[in-house]
Write a structure and sequence with these properties.
Family: Belongs to the outer membrane factor (OMF) (TC 1.B.17) family.
Largest sheet: 4 strands, antiparallel
Subcellular location: Cell outer membrane
Keywords: Cell outer membrane, Membrane, Transmembrane, Transmembrane beta strand, Transport
Distance between the termini: 54 Å
InterPro entries: OMP_efflux, TolC-like
Pfam families: OEP (PF02321)
Mean pLDDT: 88
């Protein structure tokens, strides 16, 4: 019973492996998660969190410790005879601990935090843009594999047809209806097909390995690539992540403008200093003393030679530059869309004529098949017509895959 269960599990596993398949959308999703660049998003988030904590620390009390020992060549003396006031020692010592607390800085700290948030959004969107640009590479690999897959099936069909014809020819030779050695021509063609199958399979394995490295997912040579029809909506409205990136860059500039506007705001701080030294605050007491001071301090940069204004003007120019980059991107992308649409229409016209050619080739092959059976033509003539039909069918498959690729690229260019 246990042995039977193991066999059943093994059979089930083999069926699951043989049925392994993948779609184009799944390749997109896997690349977004597994491509090495995707890890940057988490790293950027962690980095930004640390930077924001550093900025937020400005709101916390700032502690500083100072200690010094000096020897002076001269000291202050009180020029009063018989005053009993001892002059200061020339060797002096002091240690202080200071606390500074920011009370008000015009919102500059919060503005700095806003800048950090804007920078994070911009960097993460840049990662998304870079990952999005992988889609066309995935399209090329996926549909090249799909073409190999369909070509392999067509070759197998041709192989089966030739093997069936070889049996007929062998029987015809036996009964003297068909010329001797006609079977050799068919056998040579079958060997040629085996070579073509090997080449197609080798190319497919190489393409699968490349795609596997891009999407970060191991793929076996037996995996089935789904030939799902790609739907497109021919419109010029763009939905690319680059457009969001341009807007985020402008948002980042605006947050920097807000920060610069607050940099010249008055800053109010409270402070306290405690210390121990010789002398202390009482310069007339020549001994070690403890001391402290507390107070508030106002700092206001009243005039900065228009540096602040010029910085904001520079940022405004940056926004204009981004606007020109946006318009250039839209123009180039719409041009690509038009080219891709023309490509789609051209391939659709090819497919229409391919179908007509195949119908004609089938009629010719049907006639050749009858003539071969009756010994009117040789196997070589039959193979020529069979190859012509195969090439026409192969061209149709190639055009259908190219149409799918063109539509997939159209969707990527548009941002669908």
């Amino acid at each position: 019973m246990k042995r039977s269960l193991i066999i059943l599990i093994g059979l089930f596993t083999n069926v699951m492996v043989s049925q392994q398949s993948i779609t184009l959308q799944e390749c997109y999703d896997l690349a977004t998660v597994n491509y090495p660049l995707a890890k940057q998003s988490v790293l950027l988030d962690a980095q930004n969190q640390l930077e924001k904590e550093v900025v937020s620390n400005a709101k916390l009390p700032q502690l500083s410790f100072d200690a010094q020992a000096t020897y002076q060549s001269d000291v202050i003396e009180v020029p009063i005879p018989n005053s009993n006031i001892e002059p200061l020692n020339k060797d002096q010592y002091r240690a202080t601990l200071s606390v500074n607390q920011l009370i008000y800085n015009g919102g500059a700290t919060d503005a700095s935090l806003d800048v950090k948030s804007s920078q994070l959004k911009t960097k993460q969107k840049q990662v998304e843009v870079n990952l999005y640009q992988l889609k066309q590479k995935i399209n090329q690999l996926y549909f090249s594999i799909l073409l190999s897959q369909e070509t392999h099936l067509l070759l197998k069909a041709k192989q089966e047809q030739l093997q069936a014809k070889l049996s007929e020819v062998t029987s015809g030779i036996k009964y003297g209806v068909i010329l001797p050695s006609s079977d050799k021509v068919l056998e040579a063609e079958l060997l040629k097909i085996n070579q073509q199958l090997t080449e197609v399979e080798s190319n497919k394995v190489s393409l699968i390995e490349t795609l596997s490295s891009v999407i970060g997912q191991p793929l076996s040579a037996s995996v089935l690539f789904q030939n799902t029809l790609v739907e497109t909506v021919l419109e010029t409205e763009l939905n690319r992540p680059e457009l969001e990136l341009f807007q985020l860059k402008k948002d980042e500039i605006e947050s920097n403008e807000a920060l610069i506007a607050k940099q010249n705001a008055p800053k109010l701080l409270g402070f306290a200093t405690g210390g121990y030294g010789n002398p202390g605050l009482n310069m007339l007491d020549n001994s070690f003393q403890a001391f402290y001071t507390v107070g508030v301090k106002l700092n206001w940069n009243v005039f900065d030679w228009n540096s602040n204004k010029k910085q904001r003007e520079s940022l405004s120019i940056n926004k204009d530059i981004i606007d020109t980059e946006t318009e250039t991107f839209k123009l180039n992308t719409n041009t690509e869309l038009n080219q891709q649409q023309n490509e789609i229409e051209k391939i659709e016209a090819f497919i229409t004529s391919d179908l007509e050619i195949i119908d004609l080739r089938k009629e010719v092959l049907k006639s050749a098949d009858s003539q071969l059976k009756n010994g009117v033509i040789t196997s070589s003539a039959y193979i020529t017509e069979l190859t012509n039909l195969y090439e026409a069918e192969n061209t149709l498959i190639k055009h259908k895959i190219q149409l799918q690729l063109a539509k997939a690229n159209y969707n990527v260019i548009k941002g669908q």
